[in-house]
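Record type: monomer structure entry
Structure origin: computed from sequence
Chain ID: A
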Amino acid sequence: EKSEFLDAAQGETVRRIAEEKQFEFVAFDQIGRDILVENATDDHIQAILDLPYIHPDKLAERKFKVAVDAVNGAGSEAVPALLESLGARVYKLHCTPDGRFPHNPEPLPEHLSEIREFVLEHDCDLGVVLDPDADRLALIDEKGELFGEENTQVTAFDFMLAYKPGPTATNLSSSRSADDITLKYNQKCYRSAVGEINVVKKMQEVEAVIGGEGNGGVINPDLHYGRDALAGIAMTLQLLADRGLKASDYRSTLPSYRIIKEKISLEEMGKEADELLATISQRYADHSPDTTDGVKIDLDKGWVHFRKSNTEPVVRVYAEAKSEEQARELADELIRSLNIE
């Protein structure tokens, strides 16, 4: 009823109701009621324009040229409409909302070569890439270079904290750059278990002014407690306008880290996931491991996060350092330690 995802306790309640059959069957046309909400997209855009730190007139003066790849998903009409309301000239790529993805819809570097060329072809100031339901946002600078998904929320943090100091929140697998940017404003970045609702709960607990996830998700509580690419786009453009910067110039000011992802086969290791996680926690007890969600080990040169998969017999391993090579070395070092009896 809050328009938020169910948390673990609420999900367990639903599961128990189903398993114990604590319900009555009714005909399909007797469940709930239909509510027609007209102009919902316009209302949401207006809510963004009404934010005290979004200034459409100032944005219109910059005359931003923005390329949009919406993968023919839910943001196909909403994002161009938002950009036009901010005075931008919009160049559309795959903005027909028929749900037929023109390429792999995961907004990862290996899937974004077309939009990078599109940005250069049309001499755009910024490229924005959405996932199918428009809650994740990837950014591309005017040179066709990727910001990196992790830097979407970092940009939002940097923008919001300049206007509204306060705590921030993200998940345990998000980049350390979120902490760096938050610390720049003498604030604290809180960490939650992976998953949007877990970040939301942490935000509400600590009264965070901004939050998100490193997969390109921005959560602005002044709008609603959910990831929202439209909010991320408006905040990014306002930041560039306020600071008089090109996207590439701003990107160069952000911390630079690399995250790698690996996995450990439980069958090959001959251990259960919980046993493996307990082992890594004990081996690195001196580093005060965070066991909120699996085990995360913070080290001077980076961090490694172990999480058991809900869908495969593996433990997923995320590691971050200043370079991809250092991140892999960190991950491999900790993985090797699990084989030491």
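Annotation 1: The chain has a mean pLDDT of 94.
Annotation 2: The first helix runs from residue 8 to 19.
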